[in-house]
Amino acid sequence: MISRRDFLQVGMAASALYGTSGFGNWARLAAQQALTQDQLLEFDTFGNVSLIHVTDIHAQLKPVYFREPSVNLGVGENKGVVPHITGADFRKLYGIEDGSPSHYALSSGDFAALAAQYGRVGGLDRVATVINSIRADRPDALLLDGGDTWHGSYTCLQTQGQDMVNVMNALKPDAMTFHWEFTLGSDRVNEIVEGLPFAALGQNIFDAEWDEPAELFPPYEFFERGGTKIAVIGQAFPYMPIANPGWMFPEYSFGIRDEHMAEMVEEVRSQGAEVVVVLSHNGFDVDKKMASVVPGIDVILSGHTHDALPEPVVVGDTIVVASGSHGKFVSRVDLDVRDGRMMGYRHKLIPIFSDVIAPDAEIAALIDEQRAPYEAEMSEVIGQTDTTLYRRGNFNGTWDDLICDALLSERDAQIAMSPGVRWGASMIPGQDITREDIFNVTSMTYPNAYRTEMTGEFIKVILEDVADNIFNPDPYYQQGGDMVRIGGMGYQIDINKPQGERISGMTLLSSGEPIDPAKNYTVAGWASVNEGTEGPPIWDVVESHIKKLGTVTAGDHDNVKVVVD
Amino acid sequence: MTLSRRDTLFLGAGAALAAALPMPAMADAVADAISAFTGGADVAEGGVTIDAPEIAENGNTVPVGVSAEGAESIMVLATGNPTPAVATFTFGALAASQSGSTRIRLAKTQDVIAVAKMADGSFKQASATVKVTIGGCGG
Lengths: 565, 139
Fold this sequence. Notes:
The complex is a heterodimer of chains A (565) and B (139).
Chain A: H1 4-12, E1 18-21, H2 23-31, H3 37-41, E2 49-54, H4 87-94, H5 101-106, H6 111-118, H7 124-137, E3 142-145, H8 154-158, H9 162-171, E4 175-176, H10 186-194, E5 199-200, E6 206-207, E7 212-213, E8 220-225, E9 228-235, H11 240-243, E10 252-253, H12 258-270, E11 275-280, H13 284-293, E12 299-302, E13 313-315, E14 318-322, E15 329-338, E16 341-351, H14 361-371, H15 375-378, E17 381-385, H16 398-410, E18 415-418, E19 432-434, H17 435-442, E20 450-455, H18 456-471, E21 485-487, E22 489-494, E23 503-508, E24 513-514, E25 520-525, H19 538-549, E26 551-552, E27 560-563
Parallel strand pairs in A: 1-16, 2-3, 3-4, 4-5, 9-11, 11-12, 12-14, 17-26, 18-25, 22-27
Antiparallel strand pairs in A: 2-15, 6-7, 6-10, 8-9, 13-14, 15-16, 17-19, 18-21, 20-25, 22-23, 23-24
Helix pairs in contact in A: 7-14, 9-14, 16-19, 17-19
Chain B: H1 5-18, H2 24-38, E1 43-45, E2 49-51, E3 62-67, E4 71-78, E5 85-90, E6 99-104, E7 110-118, E8 123-130
Parallel strand pairs in B: 1-8
Antiparallel strand pairs in B: 2-3, 3-6, 4-5, 4-7, 7-8
């Protein structure tokens, strides 16, 4: 069955390349409100190669709620194109019915009501069921993990990533690349990677001192599958020492290094690769640009920016696949590789509805085993929420509003700053907030909640700097996070202006007065990349605040005025 | 001499930023350094490759490589530094390749310019924007 959209896609693709997406199919099934596991997994096996992509799981072993963003602005060539289309516009673009499971899985709007109806998403035991099903169709399918796997939960922090390593190893991936893993520190990363039973790839992971490829992370790996030779090239997050604390992994250097990527593509082609797959943690817009400047890549499995797209985006002869985050989706990409080239593809973004897909018993038991030693402390109820708590959005989200409030009151500050990370599970009204829930949005190895003085001028420098990391019109200068979240202060941002001119109207909310560039303000924040940052861990600050509140009622903060045109 | 892909990437940014160099004094210093190197001759865009990170991991030590096939010498300038001159690589007739690399300190976000003197006496240049950021928060 080929939908209208599939034909569109054929038109966009190069003449020899044809492709279909399973999306049209499950959107229709979803509209019937009768979702079953068989329907979610239904796939007409195609060609001779299958790729299974998971990425940005952020250590979510168990099903979670996860609200997609309603504000995700694109700039430059990416203005108004996916993934920078959200909510009702997104549903209209893909023909998704309001209130359908696809609405719930892929877009924002009516989140709390739909979450109550459709339940949690993800869970690596459900992911295991999907992987097993694909392997039943195609036993030699490649399982590729895009990274941000060993970070993001209570148990992952306590075990320094060991819980995720144990469970992922049981899923038997073929290759992986990296981002937050490095915040475990290079000693721990090296220790884990040396024992991994699969390839740890990164063509852009270099030795910082010698500026040469790091030996522990080969650029690529070959696989003989389906009678063809597949090269998988890894691309780690390019801006690790900038967006995260470089002092934790001083031996390593990263960067986009697209010229080296081009050399690697030529190298694997010259060694007989018939299809070239890049397992990337660049972020979607960076991957699109890389596909446009590096010739010879067939498939980019894209991670980092947490976008979930029901169809690949075609750039020249390259398809770019976005597979979401937090275990919410698994992408299956079947390829027809013949005569030394990719002739066609079939793709399906499989949403992991945890109430529809049965958990794999073996993996479920393994997950419970990882969690058991911590179950008592994790499950302690700290408070309740009567509103949706979520993180994603370019400028704010209710979780970070709550965290900023906690910083303002617990650290007695005038202004609060919370980092614009994109990880963190959501919660729905009526839920108990447990310690685990707090760790799901704060867990990290540099959690200290600092309190310091900053001049108004310096605060503006920070906002301008972070804004340019998101809204620089050249994707190669974007780091893939969101805007630093601000409490206690309002401002206006014109995203299309150059750095230094985007931020205006900074106002201290407590007094209603404009921020004075020369005056000092007390600022509390967390997740500083600077070594030696002092203060209590952010989860203690948030826990103490929630305990005092009892029940969290988070209205959307409206302290940021956004100018887009 | 063909224009490399990377040159093409940077030409756009370089051209746009060249018109808005941070301070007139530095612009003068850059222009003076280039004219001293070229003797006032015309400089063509392209034919020189600059290998530099888009965003510096550490502004105090940024690895920068330059190459230009057939060059006699290549001058490297950091246009936003108080003293723009960084290095001039000179290649003998028997040099197997005309490339060099070094690490430079960049005071702030700026363009790095490489000007190559070719064997036939002509000049070529390329420019790359290297961003120096205070760092922050990743996805």
